[in-house]
Every structure is written in C-alpha cells, then in structure tokens.
Amino acid sequence: MNTEGFITTIRNIILNNTSVVGAFSPELPQEGDNECAVTLVGGTQKYNLCGNSHIEQTFRVLIRGTINDTTTRALADNIYNSLNLQRDITFDSNKIVQILAITTPIYVGKDENQRILYNITYRAIIE
User: Fold this and answer.
1) Bridge partners (DSSP) listed for residue 63
2) At 40, is the pLDDT very low, low, confident or very high (cuts 50, 70, 90)?
3) Could you tell me the CA-to-CA distances from 30 to 24, 27, 34, 64, 121 in Å, in that order?
4) Which of 9, 126, 20 is closest to 80 using CA atoms?
5) Are residues 56 and 36 in contact, defined by beta-carbon separation less than 8 angstroms?
6) Averaged pLDDT, 112-118
7) Which residues make Cβ contacts (< 8 Å) with residue 81, sequence separation at least 6?
8) Rounded (10°) angle between helices 69-83 and 3-17
9) Which of 3, 22, 73, 90 is 20 to 30 A from 116 (CA-CA)?
10) pLDDT tens by residue, 82-104
C-alpha cells in the first residue's frame, strides 16, 4: 500500500468537498481555524483462500473549528458526510473500495485558544 498516496487522497476529498481551510497529517499545526488532521490509527491485511488480499485501514480525522460550537459541529458533520460511504477511489496502483464511518463526530474538548475539537474515526477497505 502507498500510505502517502492514501493520506493525500483522503485530505484532498476533505479539501475539495468541505469548507475546511487546511487538511494536514499527522497532526494539526498550532494556529488556524477550521482545519483538520488525518492520522492513520491501524490497519490489517486480510487474505482469502485464493491468495488475494485487501487492507482494512482505520484512520481518524481530528477537526478544529472555532470557539463557536454551532459552526464547528456543522463543519464536523460536513467532513463526516464527505468521507462516509465514498467508494471506488483510485490512487496510484491502489483502490479504496469503500470508506465507512466507525463513529459519528465525537466532542474532544477545547484547545488552549478555546477552539472546539471533534474527532471522527473511519475504516477504509483498500485493494
């Protein structure tokens, strides 16, 4: 699997389909509102009896909005919807068969500047 290609693809989906200002990996920079970070959490290689395989890759998107929870929740929902149930996305010589949200947006807390944080966890099936 091409990890860099996978992360770049996920970040581009978010940037092209939401109002996120910046998408980073693996963590958020200190400054900036309405940004997110894509982080790989873990994955497993699955094999069938014919020797074919696929990867089940878990990743999370940490979202930092503003001090306004209403707009931050809307941003988190927008990101949730932009990735959940995406399918048939080719990157390099790999293909994301499907992306499934494992969690809905979860409130994480506030950063040192009182900006609100949410987290969403997904699983991607990759061939």
Assistant:
1) 36, 118
2) very high
3) 12, 9, 12, 10, 22
4) 20
5) no
6) 97
7) none
8) 120
9) 3
10) 999 999 999 988 999 999 999 99
